[in-house]
Recover the amino acids of this structure.
């Protein structure tokens, strides 16, 4: 009798705990938010890496393409990036409105297409990343000089450029 009573109580506790977890607030993980992006091609790759790290750490806060796109756009506040952000935001809002107004029996081929996260990243890269990162890095490697820099700084710069240069060993 006690085993049955204890078993039921344990099941009730487990159920209550699951309910609390399901109803709990989604918490932001302590990962640095991306720096604001200004449209500089030299900073594009770093910005995307910062966004990616933040989104991976907070995947429950940004579970779908729309959330990821809007989060990323919100950090494009300066110069050329701000203009691109405004255009993409307007395009996305227009498509969302049209999608909401779309009849439920619309054929798949006639449905309004909402941009996916992958398509957004593609558009971003076409708009902001250097066309040929490898060539750019190789040119910078060719011109790299220590000058008055400390040796450690020179070596760090060399290694970073070597990664992008696409040179083999």
């Amino acid at each position: 009798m006690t085993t049955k009573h204890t078993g039921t109580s344990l099941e009730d506790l487990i159920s209550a705990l699951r309910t609390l977890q399901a109803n709990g607030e989604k918490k932001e993980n302590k990962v640095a938010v991306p720096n604001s992006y200004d449209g500089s091609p030299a900073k594009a790759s770093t910005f995307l890496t910062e966004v990616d790290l933040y989104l991976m750490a907070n995947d429950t806060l940004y579970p779908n393409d729309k959330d990821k796109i809007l989060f990323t756009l919100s950090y494009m506040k300066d110069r050329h990036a701000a203009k691109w952000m405004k255009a993409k935001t307007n395009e996305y809002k227009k498509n969302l409105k049209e999608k909401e107004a779309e009849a439920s029996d619309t054929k798949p081929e006639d449905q309004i297409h909402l941009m996916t996260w992958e398509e957004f990243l593609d558009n971003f890269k076409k708009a902001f990343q250097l066309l040929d990162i490898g060539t750019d890095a190789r040119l910078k490697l060719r011109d790299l000089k220590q000058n008055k820099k400390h040796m450690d700084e020179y070596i760090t710069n060399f290694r970073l450029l070597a990664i992008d240069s696409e040179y083999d060993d």
About this structure: The radius of gyration is 24 Å. The chain has seven helices and no strands. The chain has a mean pLDDT of 84.
